[in-house]
Amino acid sequence: MELRALPAAASWTHSGARVGFEVLFAGAGRLRGRTSAREGDSTWHVGYDITVGADWATESVHAVNSTSSGDLEVALTRFPDGRWTVNGEARPDLDGCRDVDFESSAVTNTLPVHRLPFVPGTAVDVPAAFVQADDLTVVRLEQRYTLTSSDERGHVFHYESATFDFECELTFDASGLVLDYPGIATRDR
C-alpha cells in the first residue's frame, strides 16, 4: 500500500456523534489541528500539535482544550524505548503504544496507516494513547485495523475498538487521510 504526501491543509465536517468542524495543517513531521464542536450538551474546542518521527510514530504531543469550565493543557512524550509520560508523569499503562489518538479528531487515524505495512485481510492491533475531548484525560485505547481494499484512489479499513465496543469502515484518501469516518466526520477539503 503506497501513500501520497499529505496535503498542507485539510478539513472535516463532524456530524453524528457531534456537530463541528476540524482543520489540519501538515508538514515536516508535524500535524497541527483544531476541532470546535458540540456533543450533546457539551461544547468544546481542542487544539493539537503532534510531532512524529520518520517512521510516523508519535514523539510528542501538546494539546489544549476550552470548555465552559475553562481551559486545560496536556503534554505527552513517547520515548524511543516505548515509554510514555503525560505532563511529565510516567504512564506505564501506555507503554507499547506508538500512536496518539484524539477523540476530537479524524486526523489521528492517519498515524498507523502511514506507519505500518498493512496487508489486505490481515488484522493489526494498534493500541494508542487516547486523549478525551472534554477534559484531555489520557487512557489506553485498544484498537485494530484491517485493510479491506486499496487502490490508487484510496484505502478502506475495517476499524475496531475493544475499548469502546465500536467498529466501522474507515475510508482514506490516497494520502492516508480519513475521507469518511461514519457517525463522526467527513472530509470536505
Number of domains: 1
Q: End-to-end span in angstroms? A: 23 Å
Quickly count the helices.
1
Regions with pLDDT < 50 over 5+ consecutive residues? Answer: none
The helix content, as a percent range, equals under 10%
Task: Report the sheet-strand fraction.
Answer: over 45%
Roughly what is the average pLDDT, rounded to an integer?
A: 97
Number of strands: 17
Please explain how this structure is put together.
The chain is mainly beta and 189 residues long. It has one domain (9-187). The chain is 3% helix and 57% strand. It has one helix at 110-115; strands at residues 9-14, 19-27, 30-39, 42-52, 58-67, 70-78, 84-86, 89-90, 99-102, 123-125, 128-131, 138-141, 143-151, 154-161, 166-173, 178-181, 185-187. The chain is globular, with a radius of gyration of 15 Å. It starts with 8 loop residues before the first strand and ends with a strand.
List the helices and strands and how they pair.
Elements: E1 9-14, E2 19-27, E3 30-39, E4 42-52, E5 58-67, E6 70-78, E7 84-86, E8 89-90, E9 99-102, H1 110-115, E10 123-125, E11 128-131, E12 138-141, E13 143-151, E14 154-161, E15 166-173, E16 178-181, E17 185-187
Parallel strand pairs: 9-11
Antiparallel strand pairs: 1-2, 1-17, 2-3, 3-4, 4-5, 5-6, 6-7, 7-8, 10-13, 11-12, 13-14, 14-15, 15-16, 16-17
